[in-house]
Specification:
This protein is of the alpha+beta class. It has helices at 28-33, 42-45, 58-61, 65-76; strands spanning 2-9, 15-21, 79-81, 86-91, 98-103, 106-108, 117-118, 132-139, 142-147, 165-168, 174-176. The chain has one domain (2-176). The mean pLDDT is 84. The protein has four helices and eleven strands; from the N terminus they run ββααααβββββββββ. The chain binds zinc ion (ZN) (2 copies). One zinc ion (ZN) is lined by residues 92, 94-95, 97, 124, 126-127, 129.
Length: 177
């Protein structure tokens, strides 16, 4: 189950509606292996068929052909998705626009001693900077934007430069699946 919520600048009208979490259509099987038959792992069994509609939904969720092809290639090589995945909050570190994108990690399960990891690099549609995953810390109604390592992202409103956000509860929370 996923949910939607909205944040807004405490000073101007800038706001962003996030969709986060997971829908039912994004089970691990369907999300990363494709779901033609329960016993088939599409990625593994049909490594040359990236464009088929049975292919894993992660390929559509990354909203970039370049990332989709890279993910597909790594999956065919035996990379395994992390247990934590789903739509999540991101920010552009250059222009401060907020986005939601599909967060996941793949790790190399082969005999490779280096144990490489892969995380998708999403580009800001406006300035092409690489988006960074974030989370919010709320204190007395004011939200601070933190990177996942808890470092302050020093966010400023892309419209007015104000550093403060708050939850916009006027529209309520939306559940989706
Ligand atoms: Zn503002
Ligand atoms: Zn940007």
């Amino acid at each position: 189950m996923g949910h939607g919520y909205r944040v807004k600048c405490t000073n101007c009208e800038y706001n962003y509606g996030f969709w986060v979490g997971l829908g039912m259509t994004h089970s691990p099987e369907r999300g990363f292996y494709g779901d033609q038959e329960p016993y088939q792992k599409w990625t593994i069994d049909f490594p040359d068929k990236i464009d088929h509609w049975y292919t894993p939904s992660v390929l559509g969720l990354v909203s970039s052909n370049k990332i989709a092809r890279q993910v597909y290639k790594l999956m065919t090589q035996g990379y395994i998705p992390s247990r934590v995945y789903g739509l999540a909050e991101y920010v552009c570190p250059h222009c401060n626009l907020l986005y939601h994108r599909f967060y996941f990690r793949l790790s190399d399960q082969t005999e490779n001693p280096k144990k490489k990891k892969y995380t998708p690099k999403y580009e800001c549609p406006r300035c092409r900077s690489i988006l960074k995953p974030i989370k919010f810390h709320e204190h007395e109604g004011i939200l601070t934007v933190l990177y996942l390592n808890n470092k302050n992202a020093k966010w400023e409103c892309p419209k007015c430069g104000n550093p403060h956000l708050m939850y916009d509860k006027s529209k309520g929370e939306i559940l989706w699946d």
